[in-house]
Amino acid sequence: MEQKKLLAALPSVDEILKSPDGERWLSRYPRRMVLQGIRDAVQSERDAIFAQERRVLDTAALLAAMDKRIAELCTYSLKSAINATGVVIHTNLGRSVLPDSVMQHVVDVASGYSNLEYDLEKGMRGKRYSHVQRIINDITGAEASLIVNNNAAAVFVSLTALAKGKEVIVSRGELVEIGGSFRIPDVMSASGAILREVGTTNKTHLRDYEQAINENTALLLKVHQSNFRMVGFTETPSVEDLVALGRRHNIPVMFDLGSGCLIDMKPYGIHIELTVQEVVTAGAGIVTFSGDKLLGGPQGGVIAGNKEPIDIIAKNQLMRAVRVDKMTLAAFEATLHLYLEEERARMEIPTLRMLFMKPEAIKKRAQRIASRLRKSLSADDVTIRIVKDASQSGGGALSEILFDTFAVAIVPKKMTVNTLEAKLRKQKPPVIARIKDGALLLDARTVLDKDLPLLASGVINALTA
Ligand SMILES: *Cc1c(COP(=O)(O)O)cnc(C)c1O
Fold first, then answer.
1. Is 250 helix (H, G, I), strand (E, B) or coil?
2. Rounded distance, CA 179 to CA 395, Å?
3. Per residue in 30-57, pLDDT tens?
4. 118 CB burial (10 A radius; 0-12, 13-18, 19+)
5. Do residue 211 and residue 295 come from a single domain?
6. Measured in angstroms, how far is the CA atom of residue 178 from the centroid of ligand 1?
7. Is the shortest distance between the CB of 223 and ligand 1 below 6 Å?
8. Which residues of 6-27 are buried (b: 16+ CB within 10 A; e: fewer)?
9. Mean pLDDT, residues 6-25 taken together
10. pLDDT tens digits, 148-205
11. DSSP label at 445?
12. How far is CA 187 from CA 100, 152, 167, 450, in A?
């Protein structure tokens, strides 16, 4: 058929709405989405006709395209996904997975009224921060604490409250960019604090800090280098030494720890990260860290430390702009409760469980995935092997450590590995994997047990449908 005839043969929106398909869609989906879906599909068909890709009008295919588009328009944009990357704290995939007990508490608190800002003893207005302060102080050893929307906010509000118009001394080796727009010098200037950089990129001595101290110095700031590592000829004073220096001049030390590690990982052979408790014990007056990195809880930022600076921060105007909601508070409190017994934290907090998972256990999970796949896939379509690989913690934590892991390596024979990777992202739920040496790797460390069947069916569907 020629273009004109094809275009004239396209059904009108009204016709489609009155067809059995149209009636079915209207009974199931919001009218505006049905209209949008029909128009989108007709437009694609028109484009195809203009591009001379059509000889005949396939009405059944057009209706199927509408059905797909309407369903697409009516699904949530933010949805669960399967993380087969092996990066445990994957910022793009939502960082920490919350424990079931924590989610249950969030549902309880948020699906009804709560004592969010109500003092049940006194029968009057209470403080929202009170619900987590005691437990944070108890676990970290800090005198006082606050919680805000994320660690970036924790750093920003602390600097504004304590150092606006004053100098903050930072080592040149710690003027890092964490990701996105969070760069220490920029955060500092936005907060109104004056950056006083000392030392060199690789070496900063205690005397460098000491020489920079003057009557306008508000803080000595230490920043965890997050995803960045310096090796070789490097030096930086310990927190203890900085604290001792600060005490001599009556200047507090603030430490942006980034990842809030609350348990000592040395017994498990993970040696690098300072725990929050260690930094507090060393005498840092203000410590900031994230809730959803190594702590394994919801997005949030904790400010813990001495009562005096924390009280000043609590009174700052900005606290209102960065305050946490009830769901975050509920999730935080429930996550922290798990830390009251370290064993429970390690077993029940998915982030910790995945990091501490033994390679043999990961290998077993990889084998379970592989055997599910082999049952439904033919050797003509694909080769499937178990390979040894390395996973990462992610989230700027433990960035120098590669964790031994096992992955299912898939080499498709009838499509490229890149096509397979892209098709996996379109599954329900989407599967996020990585490509290495011409194979698609599914790292079993970060695949949740409950997702094994969905992962297998997603891979099978991507390879065969
Ligand atoms: C991750 C990180 C931040 C930002 O924390 P968010 O919770 O993502 O806002 C700030 N500082 C350091 C050192 C970090 O590692």
1. coil
2. 10
3. 999 999 999 999 999 999 999 988 889 9
4. middle
5. yes
6. 6
7. yes
8. beeeebeeeebbeeebbeebee
9. 94
10. 999 999 999 999 999 999 999 999 999 999 877 789 999 999 999 999 999 999 999 9
11. G
12. 35, 9, 14, 40
- Residue 244 carries which side chain, given as an amino acid letter? A
Here the tokens at position 407 are 């992955």
Residue 186: how many other CB atoms lie within 10 Å: 13
Euclidean distance between CA atoms 257 and 119, whole angstroms: 32
Q: Which amino acid is at 7?
A: L
DSSP summary character for residue 269: T
Of 150, 151, 176, best ligand 1 pocket probe by most atoms within 8 Å of the beta carbon: 151
* Ligand 1 contact, 182 CB (< 6 A): yes
Type of residue numbered 118 = Y
What span, in angstroms and rounded, lies between the C-alpha atoms of 90 and 388? 21
387: amino acid identity, one letter = V
* CA of 194 relative to ligand 1 center, distance in Å: 20
Domain co-membership, 431 together with 286: no
Q: Is pTM, for the whole model, over 0.85?
A: yes
Q: Ligand 1 pocket test: pick from 182, 186, 259 the residue with the most ligand atoms within 8 Å of its Cβ.
A: 182
Cβ of residue 226 lying under 6 Å from some atom of ligand 1: yes
- At 327, the pLDDT band (50, 70, 90 cuts) reads very high
Can you give the residue range of the structural domain that contains 459?
82-91+356-464
Ligand 1, atom nearest to 225 Cα: 13
- Boundary-marking domain end, from 348, 379, 407: 348
Q: Is the CB of 458 under 6 A from ligand 1?
A: no
Tell me which residue of 110, 236, 93 sits closest to 173, measured CA to CA.
236
Residue nearest to atom 1 of ligand 1 (CA): 258
Question: Are 378 and 278 in the same domain?
Answer: no
